[in-house]
Amino acid sequence: MIKKMKSKKGFTLIELMIVVAIIGILAAIAIPNFLKFQAKSKQSEAKTNLKAVYTAETSYFGEFNQYSSFDDINWEPVGSQVRYRYTLGDGNDLGNTSYSSSAVDWTDDNGGTATPAIAADNSAFTAGAYGNIDNDDTPDCWAIDDSNDLDNTLNDV
Prior knowledge:
By secondary structure, the chain is α+β, with helices and mostly antiparallel strands. 36% of the residues lie in helices and 17% in strands. The chain has a 5-stranded antiparallel β-sheet, covered by helices on one side.
């Protein structure tokens, strides 16, 4: 009697281990890039809001011939989840006054938080945005001034 050999269908353990290893290698390459792109997309909040501060300050200056505080220019951050703390100071100083959200937990180099003090002066302003967008020790810092110069003063990406 000749017995027919049954053909076995399926994958061997080695083949499955190779597939798992390939998926692991692809994930190891893709995840850091994804986190970097995610952090870069979070930076758009600061850029958009600082451009809005510039527009509001410029409009206020056109009407009243001076720059002023967030309250006077009627500005607050856009969005339901604010990742940055926004400050407004005179022409050379960041951190004099701040708009703060409970979603932002940023402290300065000395361990203290930015506290409100003064607004922009009559002839110049600098607005800043501080936030920790990737949960490390380095904050992401942006600044814009009355000449519309947007600068990433400390990049957290």
